[in-house]
């Protein structure tokens, strides 16, 4: 298990667990990023990670990506 911030671009991962502020978790859940869902890491930027979850693309800050374990 590793942090999403350390995941390799181009690979698909299953979210094992995530923690953080309730508002942030609610936002992620509404966009299909939750425990058990499959996400694809598209790219790492300076201080963020771009992911795809179903039909949604998200840019997550490094701090948020650190709290999602895949």
Automatic annotation (TrEMBL):
Key words, A-Z: Iron
Superkingdom of the source species: Bacteria
Protein's UniProt name: Ferrous iron transport protein A
GO MF, one example: transition metal ion binding
Organism: Mediterraneibacter catenae
Residues forming coiled coils: none
Ranges for domain Ferrous iron transporter FeoA-like: 4-70
